Amino acid sequence: MISEIANETLDLANQFTEHVEVYVEKEETLNVDIQKNKVDFAKESFTYGVGIRVILEGKIGFSYTTNLQNLGEMVENAIFNAECNIKDKNFAFAPKSKYKTVKGIYDKRIESMEIVEAIEFAKTMIGTVHELKCQPTSGGFSTGCIKSFLINSEGTSCEDISTLFSGFISVIVEDGEDISTAHESDSSRYLDINPEWLAEEACRIASNSLNGKHVETKDMDVVLDYHAAAGLLGTFVHALNADNVQRGRSVFADKIGEEVVSPSLSIYDDGTIKKGLNSSTCDGEGTPSQRTTVMDSGVLKNFLYDIYTSNKGGVESTGNGIRSSFADTPSVGLSNFILDFDEIYEISDIGDGVLVSDVLGAHTSNPISGDFSVEASNTFKIEQEEVVYPIKKAMLSGNIFQALQNASAISKKTRQIGSFITPRILVRDMRVVG
């Protein structure tokens, strides 16, 4: 059915132009919401839509619809939008390609999951929180199954089916003298997230954060736990987006071939890894997903490109034309962004530092300069090679580009938080404000 709609739309558009791209998406989701001690609601939803891009005399137009009986009007709107646009020689659609199978992105148990099972998952999290003498404040989880089909006038035809499972829980704990909060979350392509683990981790962090002490303001070693690392990396990757590079908004614009981060760090963007949260057969434009070496032993090797920016830069697309849905046009984005360190330390290697579970306010960081000032959440003091006590309040300030020039890993274990696959990151001499 998806392919039939795509081909019908392509035929309609070919009456007006030879350059057409059609993207059809069918998504089924299940959401459960937790408020305090109960399941607040559970719902199933279904979305089916079509997006079309056309190129008419060098000008691009876009339109979309959820009314599958009115494809003709959508096509006419795309043509009209193209006629109103500005000509640009860099507009193009993906050439015909061969695609490799990407493993581990679909679990039939998620697609067939019933709402009763979803509610039981939520109740298990709530029950575990109570057993650990904490109180849930909010939480929930969602599942999704997405089927997509992309076809264009260049002969490209790419079909994908994937699933996603995400859960989170926020808790509060008090001991009569102090109150502390914490949260934990996890996502997977498979139905393999443990609700007890989510609840236990949130309660462990909250309980360990009770009765925090003040910390002295100074430069010290900072261990960024998985969520904290992912929060700050969002600013860093802005500089690797080819669109920002071409607009003069990246500190790395003229630094290909130079060492820009720690020589122990290599970075990859890989849309093909098994079970990757953003792995897929192709990107949102039909370019085959691939592994791109962004940095090799600290040396900048590549930026991330979609078709438009690659044409503008005279290079090949790296398969990073990311589309959020059928209702959006592709733009440069991440697939699975992997940080791989050669230097690996342990907490026992740190004499004076802090462990930061998460950060608040990372969205206020300056994506061009890399400067940031964020609140450190659920933070712990490290002294004489061990975690000794929780910290009441602290801020982190610095520059993310400079921080990664002096960074290494704490343990080999990695987690995927959003697009980022990262270990705990150790940054030497970061300013901690007490």
Your description of this structure?
This protein is of the alpha+beta class. It folds into two domains: 2-206, 2-Layer Sandwich (PmbA/TldD fold), CATH 3.30.2290; 212-434, no CATH class. Helix content is 20%, strand content 41%. The protein has helices at 2-13, 71-83, 108-111, 115-131, 195-208, 226-236, 242-246, 307-313, 400-403, and strands spanning 19-35, 38-56, 59-65, 135-152, 157-174, 179-188, 218-224, 265-270, 291-296, 299-300, 321-322, 331-332, 337-341, 344-345, 352-360, 371-383, 386-391, 395-399, 407-417, 420-433. The strands form three sheets. It has a six-stranded antiparallel β-sheet with strand order 3-2-1-4-5-6. It has a five-stranded mixed barrel with strand order 7-15-16-18-20. The termini are far apart.
A few lines on this structure:
With 434 residues, the chain is of the alpha+beta class. It has helices at residues 2-13, 71-83, 108-111, 115-131, 195-208, 226-236, 242-246, 307-313, 400-403; strands at residues 19-35, 38-56, 59-65, 135-152, 157-174, 179-188, 218-224, 265-270, 291-296, 299-300, 321-322, 331-332, 337-341, 344-345, 352-360, 371-383, 386-391, 395-399, 407-417, 420-433. The protein folds into two domains: 2-206, PmbA/TldD superfamily (PmbA/TldD fold, 2-Layer Sandwich), CATH 3.30.2290.10; 212-434, no CATH class.
Please state the structural category: alpha+beta
Q: Give helix % range.
A: 10-25%
Specify the number of helices: 9
Number of strand segments: 20
Tally the structural domains: 2
- Globular, elongated, flat, extended or rod-shaped: what is the shape? globular
β-strand percent reads 35-45%
Distance between the termini: 59 Å
Largest sheet: 6 strands, antiparallel
- Series of secondary-structure elements, N-terminal to C-terminal: HEEEHHHEEEHEHHEEEHEEEEEEEEHEE
**Unreliable sequence segments:** none
**Major beta sheet, strand line-up:** 3-2-1-4-5-6
Radius of gyration: 24 Å
Chain-averaged pLDDT = 96
